[in-house]
Amino acid sequence: MDSLLHDWPEPVVAVQSIAESGATLIPNKYVKLAADRPTGPGSSAGRELSIPIIDLGKLAGGVIDCRAVIRAISDACRDWGFFQVVNHGVDMEVVKAVLGVWREFFKLPMEEKKKLANSPRTYEGYGSRLGVEKDSSLDWGDYFYLHLLPHCIKNFDKWPTVPGACREITEEYGRQMVNLCETVMKVLSMSLGFNVEFLKEKFGGEEIGACMRVNYYPKCPQPELTLGLSAHSDPGGLTVLLADDQVPGLQVRKGNAWVTVNPIPGALIINVGDQIQVLSNATYKSVEHRVVVNEAEERLSIAFFYNPKSDLPLEPVKELVTQERPQLYRAMTFNEYRLYIRKKGPSGKTQVESLKAM
Ligand code: OGA
Ligand code: NI
């Protein structure tokens, strides 16, 4: 493993402890360049727009027969890279429970949470920074990151023991997320003209990876100067985001505009990650998104990441490489790929762009 990733470049300060100190100014490290601030370019452009809403209930009779849903998801992936799903089949009791246990976790005393402090080597545990570059700008959020699949890398020693139900509920939530992602993978396979299992097999079949990041964005005294999470695209395959439906914060890039997502109660937000962009030779693009924070309310979100098997080289599938659209990306394993974000932190779409080395 890369020696750079042994430890953080400077002591990690939980954003929650800054927020709870009563400070009225945020430390300089959190102040973004003017162009990156929530009030920067594009911030007032996309007010009337919203990401598509897709009813997955129509898939109940099987994916293959549902051309309308396949079309809707395919259009959403091309136009937005993001959509909300309703009637998604995920048990709402489990959804409520997983939000409940993680809200409770972030309320634990700081010394309890710090016992699970993470390192950049695997990122598992409680953390407050992405990337190991010294003196880089920091985001106004804390998180808890954990691995769910493959089973051999799931390490319960790094999971909270309090609240007591956290493990069981998080695992159950994870299983339901895997099912949902597999449905979406089938739809995407069909929409690209392949058989239903095609993309999952490209991801390594039964050996796919899954991990989760619970994001906690404390109240911020100067929200107009910072971001909860800087602009980035997700490095993996698919992301399912369970967002606080009372407190908006997620913004998705649409052309030059930043469009705020208003979560529908009970819905889940799905987006395509860089690995789908690579496999599909950019038929579907992973889209940049960011999080804004606010002065009045904290916000919690749970991002579930469905990823390819980590040591499998991934490249555009041959059928999508043509004379008009040559192979855009070179092959790389997901292990190699995610080293980039682990070092540099969220940095727009520079990572997938860097694969354009043909
Ligand atoms: C992420 C992410 C958005 C949010 O965790 O990758 O984009 O609303 N989260 O927390
Ligand atoms: Ni993201």
Automatic annotation (TrEMBL):
Keyword vocabulary terms for this entry: Iron, Jasmonic acid signaling pathway, Metal-binding, Oxidoreductase, Plant defense
Boundaries of every Fe2OG dioxygenase domain copy: 207-308
Alphabetized Gene3D superfamilies for the sequence: B-lactam Antibiotic, Isopenicillin N Synthase, Chain (2.60.120.330)
Stored Pfam families: 2OG-FeII_Oxy, DIOX_N
Reactions the enzyme catalyzes: jasmonate + 2-oxoglutarate + O2 = (1R,2R)-12-hydroxyjasmonate + succinate + CO2
UniProt key word Protein transport: no
Gene Ontology MF term list: jasmonic acid hydrolase; metal ion binding; oxidoreductase activity
Keyword Ribonucleoprotein attributed: no
Cofactor: L-ascorbate; Fe(2+)
GO biological process, one term: negative regulation of defense response to insect
SUPFAM superfamilies in alphabetical order: Clavaminate synthase-like
InterPro entries xrefs: DIOX_N (IPR026992), IPNS-like_FE2OG_OXY (IPR044861), IPNS-like_sf (IPR027443), Oxoglu/Fe-dep_dioxygenase_dom (IPR005123), Plant_2OG-oxidoreductases (IPR050295)
Similarity annotation: Belongs to the iron/ascorbate-dependent oxidoreductase family.
The protein's name in its UniProt record: Fe2OG dioxygenase domain-containing protein
